[in-house]
Automatic annotation (TrEMBL):
GO terms for molecular function: hydrolase activity. Residues 717-775 form the Alpha fucosidase A-like C-terminal domain. Residues 293-715 form the Glycosyl hydrolase family 95 catalytic domain. Keywords: Hydrolase. PANTHER family: ALPHA-L-FUCOSIDASE 2. Residues 3-260 form the Glycosyl hydrolase family 95 N-terminal domain. The keyword Protein biosynthesis does not apply. InterPro entries: AFCA-like_C, Alpha-L-fucosidase, GH95_cat, GH95_N_dom. This is Glycoside hydrolase family 95 protein.
Length: 796
């Protein structure tokens, strides 16, 4: 439960709802309610080829930079690539649909007094509720949800006194709005808008503003908002607003549509055509009667709970959890003041919140969750609300495996399939090799080339190779061979690219030149981004190759024969080189080496943990590699415990991988730090806003998803060949219960623990032996489909 006893004073105190395609931030004010609307397909621009971009990266340039880096001329190498990436274009922008304003006044009253306000998001039903109560006995209740089955936002006001309600949009995002009266109890708002054309920013870095150039015209979009009263009347004005008089119940439904026709097709620019297609679905003839509202609500709750109810977590399961209905400001302040009981309850709610947010922003058939999921109010959002592939979009999907939500990764799979054509062009034009290369920023039009800016972020073509780790790891949780066949072309082309860019060094094969995402090192007194090679790029390649060989073996076993000739050769090529790749190295200071030399970092507490990829999300640093695990621990200690919101979540999951529950709890407290929504952008003061959304600052949703994945990692781990129970829980998590978590291999795990003892049950959809590790002891269990195996053990 995310609850408040005050109206939302601004967007960061609103409550998010969505169905993957349509989203809204609900502010719930008793005098002037506001809905900030989003449609996941609204982006600036239109398709354009890599040849149309000013792309300065060529195979010849990469070779010259490699030669300079090999000789230790890192300043020169960095400047050469910087000259090239400054001329690149950035991504297009994710755009808001618009804002719906709703004013409510009880008939015969001045409404001067402020009512008592209770508003909340019920994570169990995905419904935002608000109740306003006045001292004179008046009461108003509002429910808002976005239905996936109905693909509609539903907003319902019920009041004990007759109301006058005005619905419209005072915001400039929408270019057109017309109101229609369809009867005394019915009204329609037709909403149209136009996205900007191709956005070409004149700025040194995304998120920092600057001049803007818009080329051409962007896609049109439209919405149809229907209003139904129980009694009273509706009037329309010439400003595109509906006025409802004398109603005690008002039900509003909103459906939206974009002009998007696919990532490689020009969109429909004419919003009137989009509106006509929306009206052509019979929307004007469908009215939300009382029975229809109840049906929509029930279908929505059933559909949502089908996903959400798969997993549950409770800490202090015997407590009443009364604080869960506290105002979020009060709960976060209690955590800051050291109230451990409130902290435990809030951990459970934030764990659930991450699952809620992904269910609400990523469904099969929708676009993948971007930097803000689907919730954005700004025409020029921070970092353009794109898909940042050097950590952030991957973090969005870490929870799908452990939290039993495999359907929700489908948009990420589809995005990568759509990236293949542009990725192949990028690999060929920029590096002269086959396969698919995707740089660190992606948008709706599936940009795969480098983004404008410093090479510390702009020169990094391993976005798709990293996303393959997500895609294959999801397969390991389900062992769904049809799914593996679907992602296989993505993996094959990523492998081809990585094979093509490996070159010989004095220590083995490496990707040269290379960067470590967004980090800088010192050379000749200057901050440099380009090294000869980096641990991050090598770790991505190692893990990709390991996953590829594992997947190839499963496909061969399932097919009772050989892979196609081309794929068989690819397997042979990977086997011939995987053992020759430069291994993870430990520096003289005991830390994992980030670059080919033990440079001094410009920022020793940098937010990115890219050089520890083998610890997480990779699988190369485990309890079976104690020296590397110690080096990773030392690296984390030096990096420190501060960072952006998403960085805190990544640190948290890494400490969980190392089995350190005490340090994990410290990072949880850092993450649950209340951030002022007016705070400036920063890289040290991450936390959450009052509505629980992750503060970079500004808002980025990846920290919410990463937090949920990290809590799951504290409870169950399965990346190293065994299912480990309670590997990293803090001392004050003395009692708890979790149901439905998944371990790799298709194993469902439920358990209850108290005072150092755990009772666990495991289920599998196939016959298999599973190693279960509890408190340092390992047991071999035979799991049979349809049977539940249990065990009791001491975990401390």
């Amino acid at each position: 439960m995310i609850a408040f006893n005050t109206p939302a004073r601004q967007w960061h105190e609103g409550l998010p709802i969505g169905n993957g395609h349509l989203g809204a931030m609900v502010l719930n004010d008793p005098h002037g309610d506001t809905l900030w609307i989003n449609d996941d397909e609204l982006w600036s621009g239109f398709p354009h080829t890599a040849e149309e971009e000013s792309e300065g990266i060529t195979p010849q340039l990469v070779e010259r930079v490699r030669d300079e880096a090999k000789q230790g001329h890192y300043v020169v190498a960095s400047e050469m690539l910087a000259d090239a990436t400054r001329g690149c274009e950035d991504t297009q922008m994710y755009e808001p649909f618009g804002k719906i304003d709703i004013s409510m006044v009880h008939e015969g009253t001045a409404d001067e007094a402020d009512p008592k306000v209770d508003r909340s998001l019920d994570l169990g039903t995905a419904i935002v509720s608000a109740r306003y109560r006045w001292d004179d006995g008046r009461s108003t209740r509002i429910e808002t949800f976005v239905s996936a089955p109905g693909d509609a936002l539903v907003y319902r006001i019920e009041s004990t006194y007759a109301m006058n309600v005005t619905i419209g949009s005072s915001d400039g995002f929408l270019t057109g709005a017309s109101a229609i009266v369809a009867g005394p109890l019915r009204g329609i708002l037709e909403l149209t808008g136009q996205c900007p054309g191709r956005h070409v920013p004149d700025a040194d870095a995304p998120g920092k503003g600057g001049g803007d150039d818009y080329r051409g015209v962007g896609m049109g979009y439209a919405g149809l908002l229907r209003v139904q009263l129980d009694h009273g009347s509706v009037e329309a004005d010439d400003r595109g607003r509906l006025h409802c008089f004398g109603a005690t119940c008002v039900t509003m439904t909103l459906r939206t549509r974009s002009g998007w026709r696919g990532s490689d097709h020009m969109p429909e620019h004419d919003s009137s055509v989009v509106l006509a297609s929306l009206c052509g679905d019979g929307e004007k003839d469908a009215w939300p009667t009382r029975g229809e509202y109840e049906r929509l609500r029930a279908e929505h709750v059933d559909d949502y709970r089908r996903l959400y109810d798969r997993v549950s977590l409770r800490l202090d399961p015997d407590s009443l959890d009364d604080d869960r209905r506290w105002d979020m400001h009060r709960r976060l302040q209690a955590v800051a003041n050291g109230d451990r009981a409130v902290a435990r309850h809030l951990v459970c709610d934030m764990f659930d919140y991450g699952r809620y947010l992904l269910i609400s922003s990523s469904r099969p058939g929708t676009q993948a969750a971007n930097l803000q999921g689907i919730w954005n109010k700004d025409k020029i959002p921070a970092w353009y609300c794109d898909y940042t592939t050097n950590i952030n979009v991957q973090m969005n999907y870490w929870l799908t495996g452990p939290c039993a939500l495999p359907e929700l990764i489908e948009p990420l799979v589809r995005m990568n399939l759509e990236l293949l054509d542009n990725g192949r062009t990028t690999a060929r034009r920029c590096f002269g090799v086959s396969g698919s290369a995707v740089f660190h920023n992606v948008d709706l039009w599936r940009k795969a080339t480098a983004a404008k800016g410093d090479p510390s972020w702009a020169y990094w073509p391993f976005g798709q190779a990293w996303m393959c780790r997500n895609l294959f790891d999801q397969y390991l949780f389900t062992r769904d061979l049809d799914y593996l066949r679907m992602i296989w072309p993505i993996m094959c082309d990523s492998v081809r690219f990585c094979l093509g860019v490996l070159s010989e060094t004095d220590r083995g094969l490496a990707v040269c030149p290379a960067t470590s995402p967004e980090n800088l090192f010192m050379s000749e007194g200057k901050a440099c981004s380009v090294s000869y090679y980096s641990e991050n790029t090598l770790a991505i390649v190692r893990n990709l190759f390991r996953d590829f060989l594992s997947g190839a073996g499963d496909l061969e076993d399932a097919g009772n024969g050989e892979l196609p000739v081309g794929e068989r050769r690819l397997v042979d090529d990977v086997r011939s080189v995987i053992g020759r790749i430069v291994p993870t190295r430990i520096g003289a200071d005991g830390r994992v080496m980030e670059w080919n030399e033990s440079f001094d970092e410009q920022d020793r507490q940098h937010r990115h943990m890219s050089h520890l990829y083998e610890l997480h999300p990779g699988t190369g640093i485990t309890r079976a590699t104690p020296r590397l695990a110690d080096a990773a621990r030392r690296s984390l200690q030096v990096r420190g415990d501060e960072g952006t919101g998403w960085s805190l979540a990544w640190r948290l999951i890494m400490w969980a991988r190392l089995g350190d529950g005490g340090h994990a709890e410290l990072l949880i407290d850092r993450f649950l730090r209340l951030v002022d929504p007016d705070a400036a952008m920063g890289v040290r003061n991450g936390g959450v806003y009052a509505n629980g959304l992750c503060a970079h600052p500004p808002f980025q949703i990846d920290g919410n998803f990463g937090f949920t994945a990290a809590v799951a990692e504290m409870l169950v781990q399965s990346h190293d060949g065994a299912v480990t129970l309670l590997p990293a829980i803090p001392d004050d998590w003395e009692a708890g219960e979790v149901r439905g978590l998944r371990a790799r291999g298709g194993v469902a795990v439920s358990m209850r623990w108290r005072d150092g003892r755990v009772e666990c049950s495991l289920e599998s959809d196939r016959r298999q032996h599973v190693l279960v590790r509890v408190g340092g002891k390992t047991r071999d269990l035979l799991l049979e489909p349809g049977r539940t195996e249990g065990l009791c053990a001491v975990f401390r």
